[in-house]
Amino acid sequence: MLDGDEMISRYLDGTPSVLKIDVEGAEGYVIEGLEATLRDDECRRVYLELHEGKIFGDETADSICETLSECGFEVSTLHRRRNEMGSEQSDEKFVVAAK
């Protein structure tokens, strides 16, 4: 399986300036696999939907936002929403990270 940095280097010509990430709980894994791209000055903005309470592994919404900050981004929350589907509930946080 390829991580985001490998996919970008194989299939794109250069670093994307904007990323949109909506991966239903795998946010930590995706951000980890994009760290080189995120540290590149050409990557200027990230739109991210965080599914708090559904994030896989040891990551939290706060730790993911901290990683973005460490990569040079200023992170802001655009919107929060409580999502209730049947017996499942999750809080969704929509953030933008900009350099």
Automatic annotation (TrEMBL):
Superkingdom of the source species: Archaea
Start and end residues of each Methyltransferase FkbM domain: 13-74
Keywords annotated in UniProt: Methyltransferase, Transferase
Gene Ontology biological process terms in this record: methylation
Record GO terms (molecular function): methyltransferase activity
Pfam families, per the entry: Methyltransf_21 (PF05050)
Name of this protein: FkbM family methyltransferase
Species this chain originates from: Halorussus caseinilyticus
